Amino acid sequence: KAGVTQTPRYLIKTRGQQVTLSCSPISGHRSVSWYQQTPGQGLQFLFEYFSETQRNKGNFPGRFSGRQFSNSRSEMNVSTLELGDSALYLCASKGIGTHHTEAFFGQGTRLTVV
Amino acid sequence: QQQVKQSPQSLIVQKGGISIINCAYENTAFDYFPWYQQFPGKGPALLIAIRPDVSEKKEGRFTISFNKSAKQFSLHIMDSQPGDSATYFCAASNTNAGKSTFGDGTTLTVKP
């Protein structure tokens, strides 16, 4: 069973640009969550998508948005990039049901804003 | 408002020693408490998890102790090995809402 795949692995963007990150969950998983990881802030929850609908949202500005497609693949978009957006962006997928509690993480996309 | 507080931020332990990482939570709606291990360049991976109806869970050298009344839980790594050197995150989840909150992480270094 293939794991969670995130693309690209590394990205360098200029301040003011926008960026789109992609996440392919484990086959059969319908929940995809996105996290921002920075050295001083740990793992910060961005949002969760389930069956193409945003189910939960963290405390990030509207520049951060996402979507999920019918095949459960998810994209995250950040517009008007700021230097502080430099971070490792992780996505995690989960199965449905109360027994499916484990979140499986991808390796992340390392975004550097210059 | 940080819902899960993790300490210490960093920990150095000698090989063979016991590593202890603590977490405290606030929201009583949390019903699942996992610990994740993350190596450099990798995403976090589930290490061990516990539900609040159990006070302790052990898997090999890793043990979670859970105190529901104090709203605290901890990870104990017995006989710590250099290969255990990683960042450890505790988390608290509300499985009905599908949301997890993570601690800030603890960087563990096990010296040979």
Task: Please give a structural write-up.
- In chain A, the strands form two sheets. In chain A, strands 2, 4, 5, 6, 9, 10 and 11 form a seven-stranded mixed sheet that branches.
- Chain A is globular.
- The N and C termini of chain A lie far apart (37 Å).
- Chain A contains no helices and eleven strands.
- In chain A, strand 4 and strand 5 form a beta hairpin.
- Chain A is mainly beta.
- In chain B, strands 2, 4, 5, 9, 10 and 11 form a six-stranded mixed sheet that branches. In chain B, strands 1-3-8-7-6 form a five-stranded antiparallel sheet, with no helix packed on it.
- By secondary structure, chain B is an all-beta fold.
- Chain B is globular.
- Chain B starts with a strand and ends with a strand.
- In chain B, a hairpin with a 4-residue loop joins strand 9 and strand 10.
- At the A-B interface, strand 4, strand 5, strand 9 and strand 10 of A face strand 5 and strand 10 of B.
Write the layout of secondary structure elements.
The complex is a heterodimer of chains A (114) and B (112).
Chain A: E1 5-7, E2 10-13, E3 19-24, E4 31-38, E5 42-50, E6 53-57, E7 64-68, E8 74-78, E9 87-94, E10 104-105, E11 109-113
Parallel strand pairs in A: 2-11
Antiparallel strand pairs in A: 1-3, 3-8, 4-5, 4-9, 5-6, 7-8, 9-10, 9-11
Chain B: E1 4-7, E2 10-14, E3 19-25, E4 33-38, E5 45-50, E6 56-59, E7 62-67, E8 72-77, E9 86-94, E10 99-102, E11 106-111
Parallel strand pairs in B: 2-11
Antiparallel strand pairs in B: 1-3, 3-8, 4-5, 4-9, 6-7, 7-8, 9-10, 9-11
